[in-house]
Each structure stands twice: as structure tokens, then as C-alpha cells.
Amino acid sequence: MIKILDIVIAGLLMGGIYALVAVGLSLQYGVARVLNVAHGEFIMLGAFITWSLYTLAGINPLVSLVICGPTVFIIGFILYRTVFTRLRTMSASPAAFEGNSMLACFSLLFIIQNVAILIWGAELKGYSYLPFAVNIAGAKFAANRLVTLGFALAIGVIFYLFLARTRLGKAIRAAAQDAGTAGLVGVNINHVLALCFGFGALMAGLAGTLLSMSYEIQPAMGLEYTVIALVVIVLGGLGSIPGSFIGGFILGLVGSIVIYIEPGLALVAYYVIFIVLLLVKPQGILGK
Amino acid sequence: MDMSALTSRKFVVSGLLILILFAFLVTLPLSFPGYTIVLFSTIFMYVILTLGWVMFSGPTGYISLATAAFFGVGVYTSAIIGIALPLPLVIAIGGAASFCLALLVGALTLRLRGTYFIMFTFGLVELILHFVLWWEVTITGTTGRMVPTVGNTTVYYLMLILFVFLLLTAYLIKRSRRGLALQSIGEYEDAAAHTGVNVTMVKVTTFAISAFFMGAAGAIMATRWTYIDPKIAFNPLLSFMPVVMAIFGGMGQLYGPVIGAALLTYLEQFLITRFPYYYMLIFGIIMLVVILYLPEGLAGLIQKLWQRTFGRKHEVT
Amino acid sequence: MKLLEGTGVTKHFGGLAAVSKVDFHVEQGEALGLIGPNGAGKTTLFNVISAALPLKSGQIRFKGRNITGLKPHQICRLGVARTFQSVKIFNHMPVLANVILGSYYGTSSRMSSADAAREAAALVDFVGLSALQALPAKDLTLANQKRLEVARALATKPELLMLDELMAGLTHTEVGEAMELVTRIRERGITIIMIEHVMTAIMSVCERIMVLHHGAKIAEGTPKQIATSKEVIEVYLGE
């Protein structure tokens, strides 16, 4: 019984990160229509900025959330306004834009990773924050991971409220449904899409900050999370932001179970799920 | 200007260039030092990966990021059975293994939207890397493997032969009805299907053919590296580089990928020796710049120059 | 004989019934008109027949054979061809190549390159595009692009040709030319279904007309019957 609780909570802990990361990618792909294969690199940036702030200036990682988030948001926003807006005007069709922007992200992956290596070096880094264990119903969990889950959920709820209650949030939902029509009813579409891309990067940056509290980090860490995010957004349904959130937790649980049975095969298991989804229900859980 | 004179002049010029090029390539090991032979083997590797990639992804627009997976399968084939079997057979099996993997991947994802295909191929390299890593550590108990070596000159000629085969295959496909079908799939896949093209079959088989060459190249190159492990064999850079080279060289003509790959491989080798910490960055920037400002690539530029020098575009009546 | 027959054909998009329990048939050699206000489900019906979209329920039979569930290329090879509302020609391929693709792949028997080239050239001539055959398709005028799409469809040797708003966007003269083309196609023994909004064309070319509204068939009959039908007039005036 304790073992099951152990696995479930471990799954939720992982799932929280997956959910954040997937919502970020869902904003970028589902709304801004950019298949950002460099998504994981923004996670990595968030993680390394936090590391630097902590080791060089002693800044609490939870405080870093407030620094990393906006920083990565601005990077994402600027990238969209420069690179992707130009690609949008250049591309002959939406399909061409998707392909071109994906390739542009592919280039960004290599650029950002290399820049990170130049700034921080290629070796593993880490720091210690809230490493003590907390006892929940007999099972032990690291406090930093529980805090991560708490923040992931909080961010999810705040974002949900933002989407549901604010004007900008409604504009984003409109753009997610139909960017063309949203533009017609007065939504400044270029602005909204850039904001969405920025928000997506922001989610990644926040996830990176949270991750750095519990795990060691290195410049090549991002790719794995990008692949996981891709699986989650397909699982949740392409274009569904709530779907990505839920899908993240589901995948986290699956991963936890697989790791318990055979560590090292988690990514393989996610892929098998991906394959099964493509065969049986490509629209995912909540997709159109 | 007379159109037939224009095309026959083009023909003669290209024909001569190709002949000179091949004379040069065939006699290269006799007149150049070992370093150059090795460099050209690497150039052949990237040319094969790039041309193979363009053969499918060019006309159809389905961007595959699985190149490293197919190449790696060939590398591992060499490592696993290279001790037991003669090299030509190993190469054929390496190619065949990649061919089968591509059939599987294609059958799964090519009947869905292009987005799923890109996502799937993107993650495929990571997946196989992790899986092989786990397998080698948990089941076979090794991390890396040794590959039986053959001489540098042998590797060179094997790669040259593979390159010629690929060039012929790509040329024949492009000129055949399959080439037309591939192009139509890239333009309007549903209209192609309504014109009688079995789009899934055409996509999957062409994808598999391109994978064969990538796998065969992997099997050959493994013998040059002699030591391989999952991170070397399934290196995401090998999915990335062919795409940069193809876009840089231009995908409209067959010589575009070849020139693009040759030039950029030379640049890569130069950077790896002088500025090893910068070459990912530089290639990333090159790709970004080309995507944004030179979408037709070098070949597109050359085409425009040719047209401006030798003749006008066909007048619209 | 009934060349094409559909019973209870239904297609939903989410909760909306785009085509709702439609029964229809087309006699060999006839020209059937398919009309109705925008959103009536006409193109969706075409999409379901040609298998561009799967249907939810119902059955479609071509020459007595159940074709429900087949893939588009299979239906094409059986002898059903179509054009598209937004012209889907292969823009970067020359005119002749567009048509040759149909000759290569559109039939169940394999044709040699020489025969295919000859047939394609003949079809390009049939639709009046011989002078432009080397041009990339994107350089053609809209009317010529529509001609090209027809030629490509004809290359697949159809017994039934489905035309989706062939006349849309054409000038008065071009509409006349299109009608004349349709007549010449019928002279070759090909059965036609046409979706149209240009009423003069439909009324003069078709022997029978079917009217769809909100996915359901609301009327069927000769042009005269349709023109005087109370339901049809209400549907069009009420729009």
C-alpha cells in the first residue's frame, strides 16, 4: 500500500513538471502554430539562470521564478516578433509556415544549446535547496519536489484563471480556436500570437527553475523534455491546453510505474504510448 | 532564344562537369594524402545523408528528423555482425535493417498528418538512443562496441560506390512517375489521392528507400570510427546537418544537396579542429539565416543566375 | 442503370449533421445537378462519395458494388473522378505533367510512358490548353486552371465525373465555355454530377436536379419541377 502511494505521488511530482512543460508547448503549437522543437532549451535556460542566481548571488530559487519567467518570456516574445513573424509573412501556406518554423526552432535548439555550453560549460551542475525529506503517510518525499508540485499546480490554476477571466486570456482562447476570425473581430493577432509564444517559453522557464531545485542540470537536458512534451500534447489532444495539463499528470503517473518496474525505460514507455495513440486515437483525450 | 539549344547546352555542360568530377573522385586516393581521403569519406557520408533526406522530404514536404536513427541502425549493424560477415553483406544488411525500420515508422505515421510524422521522427532518435543504452547496459552488459576496421581507401571507395548508387536512384526516381507522384503529394496530397495515387504506399516506400542508403552509409562509416556507442551512433546532429545542408544547397535540383553537403562538411571539419565549441552555434545560425533569407538555397541562386545569363523565362501567352 | 447509388448517407462534424440520411442515385449517362444554399452539405456529399471523408452511416454503391470504406485512390481507379471547389492543381508542375499523373495512376492497368504522354496530350488538347502545356500550372488563369483540373480528372478514365462548382469565379463567357466543355464530356459517355450555384448552367445542362438544405434532401426532379417547387423557392428566398 505504501509502495502504491509512493509510486502515485512520485508520478504526480513528475507529472507536475510535464504538465507545465506541455502547456507551454501547447500554447506555442496549438495557438501560435509553431512546433517548437527547442522548447526544452528554454527549460534549460530557466534552470541555468536559476543555478547562476543561486550560486553567484544566493538568490532563493523560488524568488528566481519571478526573474526567470519574465526573462525567458521576453526572449520568446522577441523571437516570435522577429523570426516567426517574418516566416509567417514569407510562407506560402499554413503548412509551409509550420514546416519552416519547426526548422527555425531546430536551428534555435543548436544555437541556444551551444550558447549555454559557452556560458556555463558542458558538465553537470547542481545546487542544494530544501533537500530534506518530508513524511507523507509513511512514504518519504524530498521537500523540494513537493514544493515543485505545489508551484506547478499553482501556476496551472493561475493560468487557467487568466485564460478564463481576463480579456487577454479570452483573446488567446479565440486565437486558439481560429486565428483568422479572431483577427477579424479586433484581436491584434500578431500581438496575441507573440504573447502566446512568450507565455509558452515562460512556462518552460518556470519548469526549468523548479527542476533545478531537485535535479542536476546540463546543457543537453532539454531534448528529453521536448520529446516528453510532444507526447503529452498529442496525448492531451493537439490544440487543447487543459488536455496538455491533464496529459502531463497521466504521463507522469505512467512514468512512475514504469520506473518502478524497470528504470531506464520511461522514455521508451512514453513512446509506446505515443505509438498506440497514433494508431488508435490520434486526436488524444480532449483534442478536436 | 531557342529552347532546344538551351537545354542541349545545359545537358552538355552538366555531362562534362559530371564526367570530370568522377574522374577526379575515382583517382583521388592515388594522388592525395590520407587526410584528404578521410575528409572525402566524411563528405560522402554527409552527401548521402543529405541527398537521401532530400529524395523523400524534398518533394513531399514531410520533414523527417529520423536520419540519425537510420544511420545509427547501420552503425550498430556493423558493430554487431561485422565480425562474422563480409563487409559488403554487412552494408546490405545495415541498409535493409534501416529500410525495415523506416517501413514501420512510415506505416505508423505517414498515414496521419505531417505534424505527427515530424514529431514522431524527432523523438525517434532520442527513443532509440535511450533504448539501445538501456539494452546495452542491462542486457548485453557493454557500453560501447568495437568495429572491425578496413583501410581508409576501402572506406573511401565503398562510400563513393554508395554515393553513385544513391545519385542514380535519386535521379531515376525524380524522372519517373514516382517522382511526379511525390511532387503531387507535396502540393495537394488529397488531390493526388483522388488522381489515383496510393499516397501512403508511395510515401512509405520512398521513405524506406532513402533510409536504406542512410543505414548503408552508417554501416560503412562505423568501420572508420572503430569504436562506437549509442551516443555516437544516434547523434541528433546527424539528423540536423543534412537538413541544414539541404536547405543551404537548395532542394530543387539534385546537385543542390550535393554541393550544400560538400561545402558545409568542409566547413564543419574546419570548425571542429579550430573552434570545436562553436560549430553547433555557427551551423544553427547558417540554417536560420538560410531559412529566413535564402529559402531556395544555393541551387536556387544558381538557377536564377543561369536564367539571367542564358535566357528569359518562358513568356506567358 | 443506376451508376451511383447512396442510401441513408450521413456525415457528422462534431454534433452537426452536415449530411443527413440522404438517399440518391445517378443514372448512367445523365447529368445530375446538386444545388442548395451554402452549407447545405453538397461538397460534403462529394467528399463522402469520393472517400475524402469517412461517412458516419449509410452505404454508397458504384455499379452495384459497395464502395463505402474504400480509399480515395481505389475509388478513383474504379471510375469515379472529381474536381474541387478550390482548384487543387499541382501548381509547380507543368500543365501536361498534371494530366499525365492521372494517366499514370488513375486506372487499374499500368500504362506505358509513351501511351500516357499521348493520352495526356490529347486530353490537354480536348480542354483547349495545348498552347499552354509546358507552363507551370500556377501561371494559368482561373478558368484555365479549372480546365486543367477537368483534364486531370478525365485522365483517370472515369465513368462518373463529379464537378464541384466548376463555374464559380468565371466570367459570363467562360461560363458558356465551361457548359460547352461539359456537353463534350457527356458526348464521351461520361456521367456527370455537378454542384453549382450558377442556375442557368444547371437548368440547361442537367436532366435531373437534387436539392439539399441543412444536410437533408428536400427536393428532386426535373429542372422545371425544381424551378417551380414551393419548398425550393422558400429555401432560397429565405436565405
What profile does the largest beta sheet of chain A have?
2 strands, antiparallel
Give the % helix of chain B.
Answer: over 70%
Principal-axes shape call of chain A: globular
What's the tally of helices of chain A?
11
Please name the two chains that share the biggest interface, counting residues whose Cβ lies under 8 Å from a Cβ on the partner chain.
Answer: A-B, 43 and 41 residues
Please give the number of β-strands of chain A: 2
| Regions with little confidence, pLDDT below 50 for 5+ residues of chain B | 313-317
Poorly predicted tracts of residues of chain A: none
Number of helices of chain B: 14
Describe the sheet with the most strands of chain B.
2 strands, antiparallel
Helix content of chain A: over 70%
Along the chain, the helix and strand elements of chain A come as HHHHEEHHHHHHH
Report the average pLDDT across residues of chain B: 90
Keywords:
B: 317 residues, mainly alpha, two-stranded antiparallel sheet, C: 239 residues, alpha/beta, Rossmann fold, six-stranded mixed beta sheet, 26% strand, globular
Describe the structure.
The complex is a heterotrimer of chains A (288), B (317) and C (239). With 288 residues, chain A is mostly helical. Chain A has helices at 2-31, 39-57, 61-90, 94-120, 143-165, 167-177, 179-184, 189-214, 222-236, 241-261, 266-280; strands at residues 133-136, 139-142. Chain A has a two-stranded antiparallel ribbon with strand order 1-2. In chain A, α1 (2-31) packs across α9, α5 packs across α6 (167-177) and α9 packs across α10 (241-261). The longest helix of chain A has 30 residues, at 2-31. Chain A is globular. The termini of chain A are far apart. The model of chain A has no long low-confidence stretch (mean pLDDT 90). Helix content of chain B is 80%, strand content 1%. Chain B has a two-stranded antiparallel ribbon. Chain B has a domain at 34-234. The radius of gyration of chain B is 20 Å and the shape is globular. With 317 residues, chain B is mainly α. Mean pLDDT of chain B is 90; it is low at 313-317. Chain C is of the alpha/beta class. Chain C folds into 2 domains: 1-70 and 159-239, Rossmann fold, CATH 3.40.50; 93-157, no CATH class. Chain C has a 6-stranded mixed beta sheet, with helices on both faces. Chain C has a 4-stranded antiparallel beta sheet with strand order 2-1-4-5, covered by helices on one side. In chain C, α3 runs parallel beside α5 (142-155). Chain C is globular, with a radius of gyration of 18 Å. The relative contact order of chain C is 0.18. The chains are: A mainly alpha (288), B mainly alpha (317), C alpha/beta (239). Chain A binds chain B through residues 35, 37, 83, 86-87, 90, 95-96, 98-100, 102-104, 106-111, 113-115, 117-118, 223-224, 226-227, 230-231, 234, 238, 264-265, 267-268, 271, 274-275, 278-279, 282, and chain B through 61, 63, 65, 108-109, 112, 114-116, 118-120, 122-123, 126-127, 130-131, 133-134, 137-138, 236-237, 240, 243-244, 247, 277-281, 283-285, 287-288, 291-292, 295.
